[in-house]
Amino acid sequence: MVGPTSLVAVPIMTTITKNVLIIGGGFAGLSAATSLAERGFHVTVLEGRQVLGGRAYSFADPKMSDAVDNGQHLFMGCYRETLAFLERIGTRDLLTFQPNLSVDFYGDGGRHARLSCWPLPSPWHLLSGLLRLSTLSWKDRWNLRYLRKALKDGVRNPQGLDDVTVDEWLIRARQSERARRHLWDLLAIAALNEGPSIASAAPFVAVLSQAFFDRRKASRLGLSSVGLSDLYATSSKRFIEAHGGHVKVQSPVAQLVCSNRGVTGVLLRDGRRFQADWVIAAVSAGAFSKLIPEKIKKREPVFQRIENLHFSPIISIHLWFDRPISRSLFAGLLDTHIQWFFNKARILRKTTSGEGYISLVISGAHCFEEWPERKLLTLALEELRRLFPEAREAVLMRSLVIQERQATLSPTVGSERLRPEFQSPLPHFLIAGDWTRTGLPATIESACLSGHRCADLVAAQGISNTPEQREIVFV
Question: Model pTM?
Answer without folding.
Answer: 0.92
